[in-house]
Amino acid sequence: MEILNLEGTEDTPKIILDKKNGIFEISGRSLPEDSAEFYRPVLEWIGNYGSDPNPTTDFVFKLEYFNTASSKLILDVLSALEDIKGMKILWYYHEDDEDMEEAGQEFSELVEIPFEFKTY
Amino acid sequence: MNFIYDLHRTMMSQKLILVYQGDFTQETTKSILAMAERNLDSSGEESSIKRKVFNVMVESLQNIVKHSDELVDGQTRSHAAIFLIGKEANRYSIMSGNPIRKVNVDKLKAALDKINSLDKDGLKDLYKEIIKNTTISEKGGAGLGFVDMARKSGAKLEFAFPEMNAEYCFFCLKVNVPREAGEN
């Protein structure tokens, strides 16, 4: 399966989705002008991955900041991951970033996927 | 030329550290954010407060980009809006002003009044309710910006709609982000 690899910019996150090497990560800042457009390839990739996933998947969110339009799309990403067996979310937040910790907790209440919280 | 000095004095007395007026796009948004970030970094502001200010700035700026009504005055069309940041001993204020058609005022005012009527838990519930049910609008918004500003700032949103002319009001919004005590 093809690797999705997007370099991070000042307003978009770094994204690596690599089935073969078991790397699934969204990190950095997300405040694109058009969040639906930006996350479309991510959602498509996950859709394809879901038809033949690895036995277990640790999906990493390591976000420094995201805007509200991105938060809706992050929920869409989580919803797409929800149906995949062996899925676990690793939600990273900076150790003094209570807002990012709370955001992760709220997402975990909105979808049925195990969340593991980690600080960096 | 006295207006230059007057403007300068106004900025000093209002404790404004950044003022931008003009067209708002994603590119200007990024530039303003970068400038404000440098300013906050060089002043050694605490990172949790920096993040909150950044957060409110993004929502405020992207609101203007997405929702400011185009001002049509005869042949002249303009998107001109204004964005300001004030810094006082005990708080930052993120302020914006943009033209809004009068027909849109009531709906916006009702949304802001509702947000201001809610406490911390009420805002959290509203946020979750909207994010579950919303779809991204044609303009690219999720309808969560004001709720998020209220949550991140922990303060009531201050707003006013002074009249511009028969068709437009100027939507003024002020969001205060408190700074940690001790810097007096």
Plain-language structure description:
The complex is a heterodimer of chains A (120) and B (184). Chain A is 37% helix and 32% strand. Chain A is globular, with a radius of gyration of 13 Å. Chain A has 3 helices and 6 strands; from the N terminus they run βββαβαβαβ. In chain A, helix 1 packs parallel to helix 2. Chain A is of the alpha/beta class. A 6-stranded mixed sheet of chain A has the order 1-2-3-4-5-6, covered by helices on one side. In chain A, strand 1 and strand 2 form a beta hairpin. At the A-B interface, helix 2 and helix 3 of A face helix 2, helix 3, helix 5 and helix 6 of B.
Query: What is the chain-wise order of helices and strands of chain B?
Result: HEHHEEEEHHHEE
Low-confidence stretches of chain A: none
The number of domains of chain A is 1
The level of helicity of chain B is: 40-55%
| Fraction of helical residues of chain A | 25-40%
Per CATH, the architecture of chain B is 2-Layer Sandwich
| Major sheet of chain A | 6 strands, mixed
Low-confidence stretches of chain B: none
User: Order of strands across the widest beta sheet of chain B?
Assistant: 1-4-5-7-6
Helices and strands of chain A, in order, run as EEEHEHEHE
- The strands making up the biggest β-sheet of chain A line up spatially as 1-2-3-4-5-6
Largest sheet of chain B: 5 strands, antiparallel
How much of the sequence lies in strands of chain B comes to 15-25%
User: Structural class of chain B, please?
Assistant: alpha+beta
The count of helical stretches of chain A stands at 3
* C-alpha end-to-end distance of chain B: 35 Å
Number of helical stretches of at least 4 residues of chain B: 6
Q: Give the CATH class of chain B.
A: Alpha Beta
**Overall shape of chain A:** globular
Write the layout of secondary structure elements.
The complex is a heterodimer of chains A (about 120) and B (about 180).
Chain A: E1 4-6, E2 14-18, E3 23-30, H1 35-50, E4 57-66, H2 68-82, E5 87-93, H3 98-110, E6 115-119
Parallel strand pairs in A: 3-4, 4-5, 5-6
Antiparallel strand pairs in A: 1-2, 2-3
Helix pairs in contact in A: 1-2
Chain B: H1 2-13, E1 16-22, H2 26-42, H3 47-67, E2 71-73, E3 76-78, E4 81-87, E5 91-101, H4 105-117, H5 120-133, H6 145-153, E6 158-160, E7 168-178
Antiparallel strand pairs in B: 1-4, 2-3, 4-5, 5-7, 6-7
Helix pairs in contact in B: 2-3, 3-6, 5-6
